[in-house]
Specification:
With 76 residues, this protein is mainly alpha-helical. Helices cover 84% and strands 0% of the residues.
Length: 76
């Protein structure tokens, strides 16, 4: 019975060390991803989604509609 407890303690300690290492690696990946998003954000002019850009995107979609669509809506 004592050997089973020793094996169990070894397994628990080794899994704890493994999970700590994996957690640290995930933390480093998240930091690297944060830096990459900040760089991308600065390249795109300050913000990925700013309210001004969102409204300008909507205006572009509105402009792409054909003139006949807008006339039909205005007449009805």
């Amino acid at each position: 019975m004592e050997s089973v407890q020793v094996i169990l303690v070894i397994v628990v300690v080794s899994l704890t060390i493994l999970f700590l290492a994996v957690g640290f690696q995930v933390f480093l990946i998240m930091l690297d991803l944060r830096r990459a998003v900040k760089r991308l954000n600065s390249l795109l002019g300050g913000g990925l989604l700013r309210p001004e850009k969102l409204t300008s995107i909507l205006e572009v979609f509105r402009r792409k509609k054909s003139p006949s669509d807008t006339r039909e809506k205005g007449e009805s």
